[in-house]
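[User] Once you have settled down, look closely at the record that follows, and write a paragraph about the fold.
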Amino acid sequence: MTGTRASTMAGTANNDAAGPGQIVLAATPIGNMGDATNRLIGLLESADIIAAEDTRRLHRLVSALGITTRGRIISYHEHNEASRTADLLEMVRGGATLLMVTDAGMPAVSDPGFRLVEAAAAEGLTVTAAPGPSAVLTALALSGLPTDRFCFEGFLPRKPGERSSRLAKLAGEQRTMVFFEAPHRLEPMLRALDAAFGGDRRAAVARELTKLHEQVLRGPLRELLEWAEAGDVRGEIAVVVEGAPDAAPEQAADHVAAVNSLVEQGIRLKDAVAAVAEDARISKRELYSAVLEARS
């Protein structure tokens, strides 16, 4: 039944040899094989070409699902994306349905696929998706942190200096942040987060999502760092961090020094108050009162 439905999906490209085919980005399970959708199974069985991040993992996936592929399997990963994208697009122009899969989750999200989509979109070729499992969204949903606004930051730089620089730019980010990290680098990563955001910032470490030993630890960054320091962390890791709190509203008293500095330069008090109030977008009356109060 699955194969018949998938053949219909792929048939548009195959039956119209004069027209271009399509690219389908398909999400694969991030751990639990039961999360493979019927649509993914059908596409694996019927696609003309399957571009896989790791062909060995693809074969294991197909074997676990108990299905057979009929299309040509091509490796497509970060080291050959640039050289193979043009060849894949040529096949799609010729009418083929190209299925793009990565080791786990959605292609092009911290995985190969972006170059292919970018080039196909520039040509006006059809690109669609068979959505499914996502480590980013799963970790976010399980974190217990706000989900209404979030950003995905992927892997932080490995070098300490570059990592600190990146985190300094994110210190004021008010959206919930989602990161990926390798287990052997989790401890230094959490230490860097602690230093950049403060040990009290809420966070969650999600490990082995959807797998047998799934674990989600929630708490302040300092406590999560202590946990990582104490044990041998293993498995696929996602780290979710609460966004920065809203900045405290500016008060007129915060700008008294700026007014006094202008006055010391010879600017009249009234003009100095007007200039600072306009720049800070605060009430001139309140700022003038704050200056007089500070002088009394």
User: Anything to note?
Assistant: The chain has a mean pLDDT of 91. Residues 2-15 form the longest helix (14 residues). Strands lie at 22-26, 49-52, 72-75, 97-101, 126-130, 150-155, 176-181, 202-207, 215-220, 237-241. The CA atoms of residues 245 and 284 lie 28 Å apart.
